[in-house]
Predict the 3D structure of the following.
Amino acid sequence: MLRSMRSRHHRTLFVDEVNGGHRRSRPPAGRLALWVGASLLLVGVSAGASQPAPSVPVVVKALAPPIERKLDRAFELAIGRVRESPACGALFSELGRDGTIVLLNSRYYPAGLINEQKVCRRASAYTGVGSPAVRLCRSFGRLSVDRAAAVVIHEALHFAGLPEWPADPQAMTSAGINQLVESSCGL
């Protein structure tokens, strides 16, 4: 069962009672990792629990504050759209996946200096098909919340198995995926 507590820093701590009561929290300097047991993520809520699974992005390596703030707001909007909009959720269902679970299992990292100079010239985030690791570029922090939420969903679709042109000549382009996400999710 997932139980929330308040720390002396007034941040919510999540204790996974099923997993030996190990404390998992967000440190005051930034969210390094909020890891909730995979079994809890797969079911959303443990049996008999009255509270939903946390809807916060899992940041594995510290992000710059503007990127982290934008990710927090965009992730909340993305989760809401996937849960509440049938057309948005269907983007994942068509791939045989649950969009909420895919988003909650995504892991966010900074792009890194070399990729900022290469990949980030034409993208604000990137991942590989089937990979939960999403690299966020500095430009992500300058996007509107709606646009950033569309990027979060776009990258989650790749994690769910959606390929992209040119890696797959039969797949949609990045711009085509963006249009699909924006129209289906109302972003």
Summary: The two ends are 34 Å apart (CA to CA). The chain has two domains: 2-43, 62-185. The longest strand covers residues 2-6.
